[in-house]
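User: Hi! Is it possible to get a structure for several chains at once, not just one? Here's what I have:
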Amino acid sequence: MTKNVDHEVEVTAITQVADTVKRFRLVPVDGKTLPIFSGGSHAVVTMRGTDAGGAPVLYRNPYSLMSSPNDPSYYEISVLKVLNSRGGSHFMHDRVKVGDRLSLSNPVNLFPVEHLGRKHIFIAGGIGITPFMAMMDGLAAQGGPFELHYGFRSRTHGAYWRDLQDRYGEARVKLYCEGEGQMIDADQLLEHQPLGTNLYICGPGAMIAFFTDKARQAGWPVENIHSEQFLAPPSGKPFLVKLKKSKIEFMVGEHQSILEAIEAHDIDANFLCRGGACGQCETAVCGMDGEIQHNDHYLTDDEKQSGKKIMICVSRFKGGELVLDL
Amino acid sequence: MLVSGIKSRPVYQGLEVDPYARRHLFALGGEGALALLERPELKDAEFRAKAEILYAADGSTHATALQAAGAAGYWQAPSIPTLLTRLHVMLSTAHMGLRLYTAGTEGFIGQVMKVGTDAGVNFHSIRTEHRGSLARRMSCVHCKGITENVTTSPFVCSHCGLTLLVRDHYSRRLGAFQGVCINAEVPAEIPPVEELYK
Amino acid sequence: MSIAFKKETFRDDFTFRNSPAAIRRFPFPFAEDSYMYAVNIEPHVSGKTGSVFEHPIDVDEHYVGEMEDRAKVLAEDPLRCQALPHMMPAQWDLLELLMESKAKSYPDVFSLTKDGDKWHWVNKALGIDDKFTFGDTSTLPYEPMEYVTRQSQGDFCILDQRDNNLWMDAGMVTTQADWSLDFDIGMNFMEWHGPVPLAHQLGVFERALKFMLNLQHGHPVRRFNWTMTINPRLDTSPENYHKWGPDRTTVTPENVGEKVHLRVELQSFFRLPRSNAIVFPIRCYLISMQELVTIPKWGRRFHRVLKGLHPDLADYKGLTRYRPTVVEWLSQYDDGAPTSPGWDPE
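Assistant: Yes, the chains can be modeled jointly so their relative placement is included. Here is the combined structure:
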């Protein structure tokens, strides 16, 4: 029911902030302002271009908003150039120039600061630093207590570490450069935190699993552990999808999600997080000749087994054909 | 298990022990002692070494058994308010890794949870078990006064004297059910007093 | 567009009346001849000019009278306006939403000028002209939610979103249909809806909650609720039940037209930007039976709806005592002719 309204923005600055990270400053066109957002929010950026053969391509990726939540005159996002990119991050790095226009969804927050928390500990790995930048900006303005523990591969690889320490001080910003052998001491970190402390982890899946596990084993309740992972939809063998209502059929490519394939055919499907977590893209399955590969964190085990629902932003299919109620 | 079907009432899941907790803090009232005494974990020395008990006997006879259970700490409160005061102070210096458990009447549980959430403990992380009387703590919607141990409907508010209907609407924040004047429309029309919540 | 604000009361002598224009724009909530709960949520988009949907926040001829009544309710019972400590950012979000909306929709009554965080708010209808610093509570005579809702019709509940649920952690509630903010504050979505009969079995609340959790900024939604009130009394709180409860016994066949009112709540839901909370305005509209039947379609339809209403619903809405008398009175306006679908007058 909720459609994804786009804001038209212009890229007014591109800054190389680390080896493979570029920051983009996005300003609304037509003199409008962008919505104020809460730290931890992301927006889905729509990139339109042409591929090598001149055919139009559409990329849609969610990026955390790292700029100050209270300044609606611009947004900033940071994009990591991913090695095995499905196209989006390479497009941003190699094709987007200052002056280009992009579309942005409204900000959506699936990783908010817990209002009832007494203290907030942020653990960032690599590009996972981005949501925390806005969250810390918001907390600092309110005087809320926080600590950042930021791990990165090398000083040139990690983005913003110097800015963050300059801004918030060494007491609140702890840096761990892997290349220099510095590692977060999880046990010590988790041992003596006051009741009401919340832990937030953003980074690679293994890092999230590691700290979540450590926190649980230190007796932290799951309610105090939060994480966000930037998951690209998994790849897999191409398969055939039929849309019952739209009366079309097409192949979903190896590095393309069902949602992306639908969008490539100019059909407007519902989405929000594009990462299998929020439920917005839930689609009814009319029929299938094969097996659904559920890659989401949203459907219950029963729902997954029933084969009647699929989260089209991340899940795939193996077999003859998948018929969807779209 | 308490009667389900009252949507605003929490589900008291039982005193399931968190195997990872560094400290287990039990706030027990009355028959709630049995909720811990019946736990299989109590046989485990390692568990007992991390367990602390605050107990308000509130008319029950389990103090001796509870004290003899061998927990690392045991303190008997002379009353529920004094137990809550002690709990508040203990939580104010506690660390993450402490798991809070509470068992007893619904009113007792509600008050303990209030102390816990005020200290920053996430409401969902507190393990609860109902034991003992179904008597209700009642909040009078008119004067906001709390009347303890209500077993009948209607009942008389102990503060403002209005005759109140016991509604099946519960506030965790107050740890009490809602009482609404039962004879506002026609003062003479008072349904007979029924003992419903023993 | 200027509004002629009326001088009227919602208690004691009950001088409240709807003008003919107010009757015609009344949000009659029944699209069919019968009523049952549904997740009847629709996008809160701008509707017909002059209708209650034209603007996101509707201001009508009863504005001044309602605000005066609110001030009286709060003087008698300050517990009607409460906010838990962590809701301050949400309070400021709400102030911004209501001020910007009203200034945009009704520029001859409200104006808002900003110079960075220095804001200047003028409310001509209530004779208010205040300068304050956005974000600094000490520059306002009340906390932001109380300040702006003392100048906005209807009740307001601010719902904090956390733990995959919504929590009623702040509100200004003086025109409610029989629920207590002081009791319900701090409850989550399922808990505060606890007393509503039948709806839980229908799964209405599960679906509604899932939908609300994904509510997006810039895409408000709305739905309607209804009940009935004897005399045009806005404050039908449980706290004051002993004051208005007896009114239910005073309905006679002769006074139905004047005393019995249909009470409709236009409920909307807006995502708030800084706090990520949801504000839930509950705007209350009253119409007496004699005003209602001046629209023939509504007279017919409401007779049928009320007659066929499930007894549990009638009970929960407090209609049981006087329902037969009202149904009987309405029957004279129902000639059995078919009514068109939808709510607009024919």
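The first helix of chain C runs from residue 20 to 24. The interface with chain B takes residues 79, 163, 180, 182-187, 190-195, 200, 238-239, 241-242, 245-246, 248-249, 321 of chain C (CB under 8 Å).

User: Great, thank you!
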